[in-house]
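Shipment paperwork, digital attachment
Item: protein structure file
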Amino acid sequence: MGTVTVDWAVSGSNLDSVKSEMFLVVDGEQDELIDSVTSSVSGSDASGTHDLRNRGGHGQTYKITLTVTGTDNNTATENRSITLN
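Attachment content:
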């Protein structure tokens, strides 16, 4: 088992939470949620890190999703794919 560290910095009005999720990408199937971490934030700027645990499979592809939610429940999401060597 290994760890992937997500460094994040967000800005916007009335921030509420930041969530990082790691999904195992499985060809032809729905991506499988492996780990998730949520941080409560406030104000208009925030930064931090989330350590996500993976299954340690070399050559496996994962999707990392970062979702920012405001106090008004508006969300913004960004995705990245990584392959472990």
